Amino acid sequence: MVSYREKKVIPIGTVSELTGLSVRQIRYYEERKLVVPERSKGGTRKFSFEDVDMLVEVANKMEDGMQTYEIHKMREREKKQISKEKMREEMLKGQLNVQFNRHRPPS
């Protein structure tokens, strides 16, 4: 089930109001692949609350002097780390299930 924070339902104008960023800045961050909105059938951008958080974080890092490519690289490293952690977690769950006979083969 998708949490409300992940649902892409917020139009760009509202995102602009929430973040204090201009529509132009938001589109620029989209071009740089720092945020990926969905598009409605009519082509309208739809953002999630997670996207709003990311845009605020990006704006703060830009204000601190970071470049968009540095932010993009940092996000890619974070995604890889999260992916590795999820894989470790799944492996541990599997090992525990085998150890404690929680996994039953199909009959």
Automatic annotation (TrEMBL):
The answer to whether keyword DNA damage applies is no
Key words, A-Z: DNA-binding, Repressor, Transcription, Transcription regulation
Q: Which domain of life is it from?
A: Bacteria
Q: Which residues form a coiled coil?
A: none
Family matches, as Gene3D superfamilies: 1.10.1660.10
Q: Which residues form the HTH merR-type domain?
A: 9-77
Matching PANTHER family, A to Z? HTH-TYPE TRANSCRIPTIONAL REGULATOR TNRA (PTHR30204:SF65), REDOX-CYCLING DRUG-SENSING TRANSCRIPTIONAL ACTIVATOR SOXR (PTHR30204)
Protein name per the record? MerR family transcriptional regulator
